[in-house]
């Protein structure tokens, strides 16, 4: 029935190796899970820092002047008006 063998062929070596790899993988997965769960920042995505969300009136005037929406004289007038406030 076993063709002259004792029932343990070369595949037993691979079976033992697969068992070691399987349990090593299970242990590695458990260690990774514990480390991930115990981190301080686990699951907390930090939003990127925002610049001041509301531009000043002078910033708006500078952009309008750069685009060519207003002339230099108009820009200077806006600038002096804002500085007087």
Describe the protein's architecture and organization:
There is one protein chain. The protein is an all-alpha fold and 85 residues long. It has a domain at 54-85. Helix content is 60%, strand content 0%. It has helices spanning 11-37, 57-67, 72-84. α2 (57-67) packs antiparallel against α3 (72-84). The model has no long low-confidence stretch (mean pLDDT 83).
| Major β-sheet profile | none
Number of strands: 0
Q: Whole-number average pLDDT?
A: 83
The radius of gyration computed from the alpha-carbon positions, rounded to a whole number of angstroms, is 36 Å
- Order of secondary-structure elements: HHH
Binned, the helix content reads 55-70%
Backbone shape: rod-shaped
How far apart are the termini? 104 Å
- Percentage of residues in strands: under 5%
Helix/strand-derived category reads: mainly alpha
Number of helices: 3
The low-confidence runs, each spanning 5 or more residues with pLDDT under 50, are: none
Q: Which SSEs are present, and which pair or pack?
A:
Layout (H helix, E strand, L loop, with lengths): L10 H27 L19 H11 L4 H13 L1
Helix pairs in contact: 2-3
Descriptive terms for the model:
85 residues; mainly alpha
């Amino acid at each position: 029935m076993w063709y002259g063998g004792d029932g343990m062929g070369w595949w037993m070596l691979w079976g033992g190796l697969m068992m070691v790899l399987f349990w090593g993988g299970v242990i590695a997965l458990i260690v990774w899970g514990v480390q991930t769960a115990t981190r301080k920042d686990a699951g907390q995505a930090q939003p990127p820092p925002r610049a001041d969300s509301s531009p000043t009136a002078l910033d708006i005037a500078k952009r309008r002047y750069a685009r060519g929406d207003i002339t230099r004289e108009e820009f200077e007038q806006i600038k002096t008006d804002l500085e007087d406030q």
